Amino acid sequence: MYRTHTCGELRLSQAGQTVTLSGWVQRRRDFGGMSFIDLRDRYGLTQLAFNEGVDPAMLELARTAQREFVVQATGKVVERENKNPHLPTGEVEIWVTEFKVLNGAKTPPFTIEAETDGGEELRMKYRYLDIRRAPVREKLLLRNRINMSVRTYLNDLGFADVETPFLIKSTPEGARDIVVPTRIHPGQFYALPQSPQTFKQLLMVAGMDRYYQIVRCFRDEDLRADRQPEFTQIDCEMAFVEQEDILQTFEGLLKHIIREVHELEIGHAGDVAHFQAVHIADDMLEEAFKRLEDVLLFDKGHLAVDLREFGLAVGAQVLIAEAAHDLVVAVHAGDHQKLFEGLRRLGKRVELAVVHAGRNDKVAGAFRGALDQERRLDVRKTELVEVGPNRHVDAVAEQ
Hints:
10 helices, 399 residues, 15 strands, three-stranded mixed β-sheet, five-stranded mixed barrel, alpha+beta, 25% strand, single chain
């Protein structure tokens, strides 16, 4: 038997018991005739004690153990003189009577600590070492608890966990497919699924009215902060339901996960009220615009822009205001930043027209021609307006 207990399990109530532990050497501390080893596994740390006065040979053997050696120790659980209140096992230690090095180890390329000295590329190269660190290990265990919670909740509601194929034919979706050549059919390829969309629709038609899957998805697209070529999603589908049924089901799923994983209750005990319904796109836009000093008004999808915020000359402000009626423009997700950048560039160009007041009406006309029905300035419809000999202004404002 390699171990009777884990390294995070022993407590003062177990003092006097003889136990066997196995794990990795986190650190070793030598003090004259004594040595201490912090033994680590995924469950925690336990201190091992070696005393020259008790067993000199055992002490010498213990001092051969370096960081990340895999060792086995048998001994008696005793109360520590200097307790460590920061460890669950900090009230006890093991007086070792048997000690064995199961596997030696080279010096790790970075410290196996929560705050490590290894850069990201180095830690990815030695991923198996990085996973030994508590922050990475806890993320994996958190993911496991979330997955278990999801399965429990959905199974209790009658959802069936159905696996779908990975090697499929290409289907039109939002990104490029990752293709896999096949030896059996030379020159032909399988595609890895971007999502199980087609399969879950087939399952609905087949009568599997409640389906879920914690599934890998594959997309050949540029890396982003929250996206990589393969990722996992909780994929669900339901039949014979309305919008309210879906909201209740998945609001309940979120509450269940938070309660089971983080031991937090949303609302009062027994409260099954829904989350407050919000229109995500509208709220995100409104919050973004509140942070911009350039915006005076946001109402029903329109912006009123204060032209002074762009540092435009008075004449340039008059021209734009005359053409665009104070630049009240329709807003769509992602448009606002480009609009502001375009206006700043425009300010430098339109100022040229100010010195030729007779040409102002042509500049204003160019703006009017560039406005669509929703009062957005369309860069493709702008005109070059002459404002003087060999000088002209590009009356442009991008959306």
